[in-house]
Amino acid sequence: MSISPGANPPARSMAATANVMTGMILMVLAVLLAPLIDIFSKLATSTVPAAEITSARFLLQILFMLPIFVWRGSWPRFTLRSSGFHALRGGVITISMVCFVMTLKVMEVADAIAIFFVEPIILTILSSIFLKETIGWRRYTACAVGFLGAMLVIQPSFEEVGYIALLPVVTAFCIAISAILTRVMAHTQDPWSMQVETGVWGLAFCVVLLALGSGTGLSVFDPVLPDAQALLWLLGVGFSAAVSGILGVYAYRAAPASTLAPLQYLEIVTATLFSWMVFGDFPDPIKWLGIAIIIGSGLYIIWRERRFASKPVSDAAGTAIAP
Q: Which end of the chain has fewer CB within 10 Å, C or N?
């Protein structure tokens, strides 16, 4: 039986659609699990310092991923140049995690995550500075609106806990820097190797911080011997981080980032639900307004970037098309 020339494209189209659907399902599962990292972290902060929780997360993530590395047969290739990038990436991720865990000790999980979601806004601005990406006035306006939304969440939290309410912004800034480094390395690095090598550097930085903080009495850096319950929370942190991270990797392999990015905002919803179920916390109307503004501005930026990416860089006259 002969196959007509037009038979293959629909088959490829169906396969591509199936891949995108698979990626979306995996991303939804990832964002459903991701808030558990913060729930377990908040539970652990009652007895374990932030730097120790962060180090446990790095260690357990690496251990949970080892069987996958053995199965895949691909290990990180340590070179001077790549190790420098990974060390920098591990450093900023360590700072981001320690700051966020410090926040969780005194703030509601949903509030902290909502403030953190100014990260796409910060990433947009940093990309225009460091990656020379063209950013038009519409996206800059959306960034400004998003920051105003963040202020609606930060302001009441600031009255409750003080300057620590600003730490999720520090976390967002660090993650944005990490994302830029990831974009630079992604063309030549295996994503699994990137995660492991960055985790090794992050763990090394945490060990140094804990060694320096030992005996100082500083609640963030002075290590303690976790009791059985704290060990359970730490295992929850590492397991949730590993599983959600793996799901995210495969989601991005199956579907375009522009398709998956909006789904990440579901994390605010699931974080609110888990926080209410475990701690009885629920955002007030002003905070919900701020959360809605942050989500709206972030989705607009994602939509605008997706639309700009689908157009030619310049028009017929050679003038750049500003997004």
A: N
Q: Which residues contact 142 (CB under 8 A, 6 or more apart)?
A: 121, 297, 300, 301, 304
65 and 195 Cβ atoms separated by less than 8 Å: yes
Nearest to 184 by CA among 103, 130, 257, 118: 130
Tokens of 251: 């989601």
pLDDT (0 to 100) of residue 308: 60
Q: Which two tokens stand for residue 41?
A: 């972290």
For residue 12, count CB atoms less than 10 angstroms from its CB and return exposed for 0-12, middle for 13-18, buried for 19 or more: exposed
Return all residues near 124 (Cβ < 8 A) that are at least 6 apart: 135, 139, 143, 301, 305
CB 298 within 8 A of CB 120: yes
Whether residue 138 contacts residue 304, with contact meaning beta carbons closer than 8 Å, is answered with: yes
Where do we find the tokens 């090598």?
197
Q: How far apart are CA 50 and CA 53, in angstroms?
A: 5
Rounded Cα distance, 129 and 205, in Å: 28
Alpha helices (H) in the chain, listed in sequence order: 8-44, 50-72, 80-106, 109-116, 119-130, 137-161, 167-185, 191-213, 228-254, 257-260, 266-279, 285-309
CA 308 from centre of chain:
23
Instruction: Write the single-letter amino acid at 209.
Output: L
Rounded distance between C-alpha atoms, residue 161 and residue 36, angstroms? 23
* Measured CA angle at 47 (ends 46, 52), to 5 deg: 110
Specify whether the CB–CB gap between 42 and 224 falls below 8 A.
no
Provide block-wise average pLDDT over 10 residues at a time, the chain (323 residues). 42 62 85 91 94 93 80 67 83 94 90 85 79 71 79 76 86 87 72 79 94 90 93 93 83 73 79 88 83 82 65 34 32
Residue whose tokens read 């750049």: 320
Contacts of 67 (CB under 8 A, 6+ apart): none
Gap between the Cα atoms of 145 and 295, Å rounded:
11
